[in-house]
Amino acid sequence: MARFAFFAMALAALTPAFAHPTNAPRAKTMGCTVEPTAEFLATAAKFAELEAVGDNSTEINISSARVAAAAATITVDVYFHVIAKSTSLSGGYIPQSQLDAQFKVMNDEFAPSGIQFVLKGTDYTVNSGWASDGNELAMKKALRKGTYKSLNLYFQFALTDDAFGYCYFPTTVTTGSNNYYYDGCSILYSTVPGGSVTNFNLGKTVTHEVGHWFGLLHTFQGQSCSGSGDSIADTPQQLSATSGCPTGRDSCPNVAGLDPIHNYMDYSYDSCYEEFSPNQITRMASMWSTYRASS
To answer: What's 275's DSSP letter?
Structure first.
């Protein structure tokens, strides 16, 4: 806990209250449309600097991320909101069985990171405008529950730019502000387990988006073989997003390491996703402690 208190103090002066949280305008591409602002990228880089110091510090030892995570489990209250065009499955009205399967995927895939979820409530809304990603702020002001450390997931019939999902990065917010209400993840309803989106219907879009909610960037952030990338030391440099599950892919052959195609923060098929890296686990715990834990 001393490590996370150190992070909080070191970052206090760095973190402003961003306009329309820490996402820039969304990328117009199939998949996840989360785009961080320059301010959030600077924050991620600062975390990377502190973690690099911690690797060689007896006071702030972060080398055994999985062990530390298991010893100090993060528990997150979750609220499911289903926003459909009609009361039929074809209109986005997800049956409870599929929501149960989605919740199991969440806990199964975050458990190795020392994170567990507690489902506090599920509600259904039929509103064709909201279901198609219209008037996001009004929808969230009407439906959002809990505090800033509560995860709100909005399962919608369709999302802007044909996205599978989008979510907001953690930041400093004032309870009741627009930034506070924007927080959470919007998920295309047909990506839940048993959904209709081929290769992306095992529920792992939620895993990816919740990774953003915990402060993780895409492994291909910056789309370059140089620079800071995703500001995570143990994810190799990656020039572009993965498509499918191409074993041995190496988009940056002159840089050490193959592309992390099995990482939840890439764009691989659901069946290809397997893991967060140890440093990503550390980053999620650090972001949680700094921005959400005490809210």
So the answer is: B
Q: Give the tens place of pLDDT for each residue, 223-264.
A: 999 999 999 999 999 999 999 999 999 999 999 999 999 999
Give me the amino acid identity at 218.
Answer: H
- pTM exceeding 0.85: yes
pLDDT tens, position by position, 111-158: 999 999 999 999 999 999 999 999 999 999 999 999 999 999 999 999
Start-to-end CA distance of the chain, whole Å, equals: 17
Q: Annotated active-site positions, please?
A: 209
The enclosing H or E element of 282 equals helix 278-287
Q: Please give the structure tokens belonging to residue 148.
A: 């800033």
Rounded Cα distance, 33 and 55, in Å: 32
Residue for token pair 């599978």: 164
Specify the amino acid at residue 159: L
Record the tokens describing residue 22, joined without a space: 């820490």
Question: Which candidate, 117, 116, 54, 20, places its Cα nearest to that of 282?
Answer: 54
Longest Cα–Cα distance of the chain, Å, equals 57
